[in-house]
Automatic annotation (TrEMBL):
<dbReference type="InterPro" id="IPR040026">
    <property type="entry name" value="FliD"/>
</dbReference>
<feature type="domain" description="Flagellar hook-associated protein 2 N-terminal">
    <location>
        <begin position="10"/>
        <end position="108"/>
    </location>
</feature>
<keyword id="KW-0966">Cell projection</keyword>
<protein>
    <recommendedName>
        <fullName>Flagellar hook-associated protein 2</fullName>
    </recommendedName>
</protein>
<dbReference type="InterPro" id="IPR010809">
    <property type="entry name" value="FliD_C"/>
</dbReference>
<keyword id="KW-0964">Secreted</keyword>
<dbReference type="Pfam" id="PF02465">
    <property type="entry name" value="FliD_N"/>
</dbReference>
<keyword id="KW-0975">Bacterial flagellum</keyword>
<dbReference type="GO" id="GO:0071973">
    <property type="term" value="P:bacterial-type flagellum-dependent cell motility"/>
</dbReference>
<keyword id="KW-0969">Cilium</keyword>
<comment type="subunit">
    <text>Homopentamer.</text>
</comment>
<dbReference type="GO" id="GO:0009424">
    <property type="term" value="C:bacterial-type flagellum hook"/>
</dbReference>
<dbReference type="GO" id="GO:0005576">
    <property type="term" value="C:extracellular region"/>
</dbReference>
<dbReference type="GO" id="GO:0007155">
    <property type="term" value="P:cell adhesion"/>
</dbReference>
<comment type="similarity">
    <text>Belongs to the FliD family.</text>
</comment>
<dbReference type="InterPro" id="IPR003481">
    <property type="entry name" value="FliD_N"/>
</dbReference>
<dbReference type="Pfam" id="PF07195">
    <property type="entry name" value="FliD_C"/>
</dbReference>
Length: 664
């Protein structure tokens, strides 16, 4: 709290005099605070640039993504969606296909005999339902559900593969229980067996003619003498046209439908447009922070700042330069209609971009456009495929050699007992369990019957595939030349695991129960200009170590088999980094939290602010010391003046007394 004396004795305005004497220090403080405010404003402006760069980096991710890339989108268009619709994955090949849907797949429906009402009582006991080769399920009928409607409710609550409903048969004036398979196709018929309590009531009987026969979908591809007719158990068809899914909605053998599969550039154009908008937003923000307005004689906070000018220039240079390593016409943005205008902004010539994607520009193939943007790689070996990289992956001037020392392998087990030409499966040997990729299946049941070796292999594979515990994990089952069953996991690498089959079915299938195997990861290394860089395998994917100079985070998929591995390199990979890939790398350099450009700029600002705060603290300390000194001096002066005034008053009084005495 400031102490004031305000010339109580002298009448001087001591506070004003002291503040005037301290004016130099206050001028210093004002200068420091103004400089601090200026630096803080500049620091905030760079924070704004950082935010803009982060936003653009997120946008660049769409263009740089290797998996599910916007440049890989395919479309499948049906000429008659009332009959079928189509969807294409990114791997679908362009083409035109003529199809006819001859028949839809239908679900098997069977009905019971008639009852007087839905509440009619039925026999108690057990009733079992089996759909195709799926697991049989059994329900119990007791006094709580021994009506037609009660049985329908129990079926719907407890069964996985069948639905039930009570229907009224008008012709017979009776109520019947309708069972419908949840799965279409002839292989998914509903079979019912029962074990009712004798004399407990009317037993539901489903042995009559089906209400709806199970049918497979039938499709004909082509119309000539060599037309292909195929059948499918569902109305969602996969595999007829590779990487194209067909959804069948109606059948009309006399009405052909044309499916056109082609590239869909919509997503790519949207991603390019978003990138251009974000790039221009950064340029505009930087321009606003570095401009001078002569009309108002106002300068923006970063006018003349060398660091911000370097950031802007580096970003703009990447956008206008030719992409290193790219051959052909599509090696710079301007080639596809994206150019820098006089204001330093990117602008898109939509007509030129459309032509580029449709292959109408000489020297530019549509599939080359992706290379103009993200990180991409091409291999001279079909068994080695570029997958992805990161901002740390460097595109070298020379190609990257890929040296594979170990091919990825799947877990595989082979039975030790040769199968007979026909194998009988019955209730004594139809149950088993299998451990796949570390997950133990529930007890699985083979359908009773007599099988050839190939039929048994197919049925075993299907049964394992339908396991609820194993989920999406799958196997391939085949018969070796020696007549043994061989089970191979669909998965590659050391997470691919198969343990022996256990249970009564094991011996019938030729297994002892001791068989087990673990797959192997791919192994290898990358070589750049003779320098070996380490890599780690994960399944079929080989990944460069994160501290590699060039191949950091580089991922390649290796589908080579063991007999394709030779001494030396198996292939060469040419890696290029397009415009958005280079920008992503540049932005990462700017934003790096340890050694990034913006981190260095912010640290410099913090040091300058710290120096100013220290200077302010020093000046304030000096100011307070001088103020205390001046207050003390003026206090002493007031005291002296007060003493002189007291003495003067005393002398005046004495003189007045002497004068009065003389007059007397």
């Amino acid at each position: 709290m400031a102490f004031t004396i305000d010339g109580i004795v002298s009448g001087f305005d001591t506070s004003t005099i002291i503040e005037s004497l301290l004016g130099f220090q206050q001028t210093q403080l004002d200068t420091f605070n103004a400089r601090k405010a200026e630096i803080t404003t500049q620091q905030s402006a760079f924070k704004g640039i950082e935010a803009q760069l982060l936003t653009m980096q997120n946008t660049l991710g769409r263009l740089n993504r290797s998996a599910s890339s916007v440049f890989d989108v395919q479309q499948a268009v049906s000429s008659d969606e009332d009959i079928l619709t189509a969807a294409a994955s990114s791997s679908a090949a362009n083409g035109t296909y003529r199809l006819t849907v001859d028949q839809l797949a239908t679900a098997h429906q069977i009905g019971s005999q008639g009852f007087d009402s839905s509440s009619a009582e039925i026999a108690t006991g057990e009733i079992s339902f089996k759909v195709g080769d799926r697991v049989e399920q059994t329900i119990t009928i007791d006094e709580n559900n021994n009506t037609l409607a009660g049985l329908a409710t129990t079926i719907n609550e407890e069964l996985d593969d069948v639905t039930a409903s009570v229907i009224y048969d008008q012709g017979a004036d009776s109520y019947r229980l309708l069972l419908t398979s949840k799965h279409t196709g002839t292989a998914n018929e509903v079979n019912v067996s029962s074990n009712f309590d004798v004399g407990s009531g009317t037993e539901p009987d489903f042995s009559g003619e089906p209400i709806q026969a199970a049918t497979d979908a039938l499709i004909t591809l082509g119309s000539g003498a060599g037309a292909i007719t195929a059948s499918y158990s569902t109305n969602q068809v996969e595999g007829l046209i590779e990487n194209v899914t067909l959804d069948l909605t109606s059948a009309d053998p006399d009405k052909p439908v044309t499916i056109q599969v082609s590239s869909d550039s919509t997503s790519a154009k949207e991603a390019i447009g978003d990138f251009v908008n974000e790039f221009n937003a950064i340029m505009e923000f930087i321009d606003n922070q570095t401009q001078y307005l002569p009309d108002t004689d106002q300068a923006s906070p970063l006018l003349g700042n060398r660091s911000v000018n370097e950031i802007r220039d580096e970003l703009r240079q990447v956008a206008i330069d030719t992409v290193p390593g790219l051959e052909g016409g599509a090696n710079r943005l301007a080639a596809i209609g994206i150019e820098i205008n006089t204001q330093g902004r990117l602008q898109i010539d939509s007509a030129q971009l459309d032509k580029a994607f449709s292959g109408e520009i000489e020297g530019i193939e549509p599939n080359e456009i992706r290379n103009l943007f993200g990180l991409n790689g091409t291999s001279n070996n079909a068994g080695i495929e570029f997958v992805a990289g990161s901002s740390r992956t460097v595109a070298p001037d020379s190609s990257i050699e890929v040296n594979i020392t170990q091919a990825a392998e799947q877990a595989s087990i082979t039975g030790e007992g040769t199968l007979a030409s026909s194998v009988v499966i019955d209730s004594d040997n139809n149950e088993f369990q299998i451990t796949l990729d570390g997950v133990v299946s529930e007890t699985l049941t083979l359908e009773e019957g007599t099988y050839t070796q190939e039929e048994l292999a197919s049925h075993l594979q299907s049964t394992i595939k339908n396991s609820s515990e194993l989920g999406t994990r799958g196997v391939q089952v085949s018969v070796t030349e020696g007549g043994d069953l061989q089970i191979v996991s669909d998965k590659y690498g050391n997470s691919s695991k198969l343990s022996s089959i256990s249970g009564p079915a094991a011996s019938a299938l030729g297994f002892t129960g001791a068989e087990s195997d673990v797959g192997q990861n791919v192994a290898g290394e990358f070589i750049i200009d003779g320098v070996v860089e380490a890599a780690t395998g994960n399944g079929r994917v080989l990944v460069g170590d994160s501290d590699n100079e060039y191949s950091a985070d580089l991922q390649v998929s290796v589908s080579l088999a063991a007999d394709q591995i030779n001494a030396g390199s198996e292939g060469e990979l040419t890696v290029t980094r397009g415009v958005s890939g280079q920008l992503d790398q540049l932005v990462s350099k700017f934003l790096d939290t340890d050694n990034g450009t913006l981190k260095g700029i912010d640290d410099a600002f913090e040091l300058r602010l710290l120096d100013i705060d220290e200077s302010i603290a020093n000046v304030e300390e000096i100011t307070e010391s001088k103020r205390a000194y001046l207050v003390a001096e003026f206090t002493a002066l007031e005291s002296i003046i007060n003493e002189l005034r007291t003495t003067g008053d005393f002398l005046t009084q004495q003189l007045s007394t002497i004068s009065s005495s003389s007059d007397d």
